[in-house]
Amino acid sequence: MSRAFVREDDQVLPEAPPELKVSNLPNWVTPKGLQMIDAKLEALEAALAAGPDEAEEAWIRRDLRYWTHQRAGAQLAPALPEGADEVAFGARVTFVRGDGPEETVDIVGEDEADPAAGKVSWTSPLARVLMGAEVGDVVELGDRTPPVEIAVRAIAPVP
Predict the structure, then answer these.
(1) Number of domains in the chain
(2) Gyration radius from the chain CA atoms
């Protein structure tokens, strides 16, 4: 292409980052989850105050919109009482899948979920099947073929 057809003062504006998906379910959080949201907002405000370049600012503002929305809709779930006999939001559940090893997960809010750290969202298939179960119950994770049996061994509040 000839340089005659290119204007030197043309600027290519950075592409706007895609918006983060917001769940249409209630935004239940644990106390730690609420602290995490507040810390993210604080960090984003500090990053914005540092005067980022235009492209970086677009990403920061996108994240700020998401976390501001999450904070506004956050519903602090009541703490699971010590000695609870039923799996609910905020529970640490120890269980066995079939003949597998014993596993422990914390049932937390969507933004807190980190399966590698043993934190699953209350909206996950595993958490949904465990909700309402009691120690000694065997529930089925029916979205598998064949279904996976899960035996609940212990229930405690998330620390």
Answers:
(1) 2
(2) 22
